[in-house]
Amino acid sequence: MLPGTRRLLITWATLMALTLLSMISAQLDQDSWQALPLWSAGLVIAATGFKAQRLLMVYLNLRAATPAWKGTFVGLVVLTLALIAGGYLVARLTG
Amino acid sequence: MKERALPNPGWGPLSALPGNPLMWVLILSEMLVFSAFFALYAAERVAATALFNASQRELDPLLGGLNTLVLLTSGLFVALAVEAVSAGRIRRTRQWLGASMALGVLFGVIKGIEYAGKFAVGITPETNAFFGFYYGLTAFHFAHVLFGLALLALVTWRTSIENVETAAAFWHMVDLIWILLYPLLYLLR
Hints:
- The complex is a heterodimer of chains A (95) and B (189).
- Chain A is mostly helical and 95 residues long.
- Chain A is built from three helices and no strands.
- Chain A has helices at 5-25, 38-59, 67-94.
- Chain A is flat.
- Chain B is mostly helical.
- In chain B, helix 3 runs antiparallel to helix 6.
- The termini of chain B are far apart.
- The relative contact order of chain B is 0.16.
- At the A-B interface, helix 1, helix 2 and helix 3 of A face helix 1, helix 2, helix 3 and helix 6 of B.
């Protein structure tokens, strides 16, 4: 069963809002370039994870699949984000 | 879930996936490939944090963000094309596909402006490790955008539910990779 126009539009609005939230959270308006506060970086990663989850479930309609497949794809996204966040944190703490 | 209730009966473990099962295999493999590159990037960043931070300042996160908005909207149009083709509205399907391709081209134009700006000041893939990753990852992704555009054009010509669903899944995968790529390269500093 397809997601339907209403659900697609809500998802699109959510994705756009989360993208803008990420950009604001990353403080792109700063004149001087600085490392992000950790809460800001955390917000960027959390927003990215939620965006990827919504895209998988609604745009790609993975919600119609079994829990095992949903878990596989969402798990892979979580693993990827953990790699990104881990690398970023280690660089921040040791750099 | 009973076998007959599955979206793709007869495909074994892939039966439970919506759309073309082989496209899901491709999506999974592409996600693994990009995740491996992201892990490499993370490791290199740890080894050369100051260089990566200094190089990252040369990127324009607003252009990257704009491209994210463009690609996500293009994804919406493709999903609406799937809804339209499922309802048997072929003309409307082609209109959504056309709008989606137009935004895909816009993504390419913005990316081209970004690349041109970098090359104009002498920043190339050989400049340093960060820009090697920047050009490598974004160009590899852009190759997927071009292939996705070709697929969308093909299914605009040969419009059927299965064809549009398959091309749409590929296009959403391109979206998904960019969603992960954008914060990695542009935002996290």
